[in-house]
Structure prediction request, 266 residues.
Amino acid sequence: MTDSTDEAARTDRDRDYIQSIERGFAVLLAFDASRPNPTLAELAAATELSRPAVRRILLTLQRLGYVAGSGGRWSLTPRVLSIGQHYTASHSLADTAMPHLLKIVESVHESASLGVLDGADVVYAARVPVRRIMSINVSVGTRIPAYATSMGRVLLAWASPDVVDSVVADAGFGRHLTPTTVSSGSDLERELAIVRSRGYALTSQELEVGLISLAAPVRDATGVVVGALACSSSSARTTPEAFESDVAQFLVEVAAEFSTDLGARR
Prediction:
């Protein structure tokens, strides 16, 4: 009985799944820093779709105003940015974050960010930078691996075991980002236990050499962790111990104020 019920549920999900939308997003996401102006053939190779299918998708996106073609190459148009604007307009999290991010920057004089979890990555939902020269270039919408970042560890520390298992499976620990990046799922689990014990996360030179970062959880009215406030610095300006001593408690307090604005109880 259970098997037949599960099979019926899978059939219903398959019936409701629109593959053409999946393919359309696959083509849009194939545009990146390494392929800012790809050819149709390059997009077909990147998405593993046939050239005729990619051509139809590109022509549809062109008619909708999301891509433009010239000389056999394609590029995204500014209209793509409106997708992110719709997210911001429908989610108060980023707007509510701004005064708290500004408070961090004005007090600590280091960049501050809000991150949310999306699959195995953290996505920057809001950011207030300071003028520093760092090799890592991030802006709203940038994705970074959750397992190697302070924001990711905060978000994973209070996530469900299924979410953590999924991130561990997708992490690719064999491809170390730096010599000090966590290298196994068990190491990550130990780090997450430390985060839960402290109430914040500290990472040093795991995402990139020289980068030190702190993050604290942001909770909604139900107490669920919905984001992570982070502040980052450089090993050229401070040490992990000094940064933690100077900033961690302040960051936790600002995150708690942010959570209160979202309806969380102190």
